[in-house]
């Protein structure tokens, strides 16, 4: 939904067609919007002055997309899910890297590790925070 902040009402609404939306991130230029959905899809929308318009889907992942972050250049995104982080090429919409997170917490293996947040830095480093209480730094190139 987009809200008109002057009139304090809904300007328009649209469906993401991926079930509940878990995460959203605007591009560095502010002209595009990523949406992470329950069905494992990442959807790209174009933002115009009049509306938000669906552009395309990225490669679907195994589980819901809980966190998203754009690389500052706008060429790649990081998507946090359950047990892994995916890196996508924005131009192709394809996953180019997948990083499996460590499930251990205090020496005990947990069933699932939820990646609640990701941040993509300009040098290619991805920072993740997860349900195991860990902050991890990843090299997205390797």
From TrEMBL:
Coiled coil: none annotated. Residues 59-117 form the Anaphase-promoting complex subunit 4-like WD40 domain. SUPFAM superfamilies: WD40 repeat-like (SSF50978). Pfam families: ANAPC4_WD40, WD40. SMART domains: WD40. One of its GO terms (biological process) is maturation of SSU-rRNA from tricistronic rRNA transcript (SSU-rRNA, 5.8S rRNA, LSU-rRNA). One of its GO terms (cellular component) is 90S preribosome. InterPro entries: Apc4-like_WD40_dom, UTP4, WD40/YVTN_repeat-like_dom_sf, WD40_repeat_dom_sf, WD40_rpt. It comes from the Eukaryota. This is UTP4 small subunit processome component. It comes from Homo sapiens. The gene is UTP4.
């Amino acid at each position: 939904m987009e809200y008109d902040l002057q009139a304090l009402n809904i300007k328009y609404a649209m469906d993401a067609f991926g079930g509940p939306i878990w995460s959203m991130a605007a591009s560095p230029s502010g002209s595009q919007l990523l949406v992470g959905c329950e069905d494992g899809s990442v959807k790209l929308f174009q933002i115009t002055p009049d509306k938000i318009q669906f552009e395309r889907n990225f490669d679907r992942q195994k589980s819901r997309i809980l966190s998203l972050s754009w690389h500052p250049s706008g060429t790649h995104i990081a998507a946090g899910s359950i047990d892994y982080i995916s890196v996508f090429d924005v131009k192709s919409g394809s996953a180019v890297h997948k990083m499996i997170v460590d499930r251990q917490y205090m020496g005990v293996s947990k069933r699932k590790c939820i990646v609640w947040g990701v941040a993509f830095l300009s040098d290619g480093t991805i920072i993740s925070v997860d349900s195991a209480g860990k902050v991890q730094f990843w090299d997205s190139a390797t």
